[in-house]
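call fold(seq) -> tokens
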Amino acid sequence: MITAKIEVTQPLKQQRQFVAQTGSGHHLLLDDAAGGTGPKPIELVAAGLAGCTAFDVVTILRQKYHQKVTGYEVRVEADQAERPPQVFTAVRIHHVVTGFEIDAAALEEAIRLSEEKYCSVGAMVQKTASFHTTYEIVEEKTGWMKPLAEVAPEADLHAISRTQGSDADHGPRP
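ret:
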């Protein structure tokens, strides 16, 4: 079960600032545009959608497809109905994945699985909004982050392995 609690921070004033406490014990301020001290509740829905799909996609890429993801960003933009309740009517989700030789087909499948099967926030938002999803892949350029096999030739890997396990470094074995 998911729980949350909201309390007004200044009950005797006109401001609409609240402190939220999640069931997992985290706290954050909620506010309206006039107060500006925290996100509006509807902004948390957009952030929740971005976070939900991000968890799914990066997990699928790394665990199922063994992709070397070094950076990941999800951007969400949403249009709202003009009249209350101002639900989302159209959502644009853009994934930016940085890594080494990211497979576009694996990314497309990870996004599809998130949108159609795993992301609970997305499933709720899709009841009122259409989704338009895009992505881009950025090839990692940082040399020191490359896997060892790409940095050292095959022969050097064997030499490193032999050196680490040799008796010369540790003296004779009993």
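Helices lie at 41-64, 104-118, 120-125, 148-151, 154-164, 167-170.
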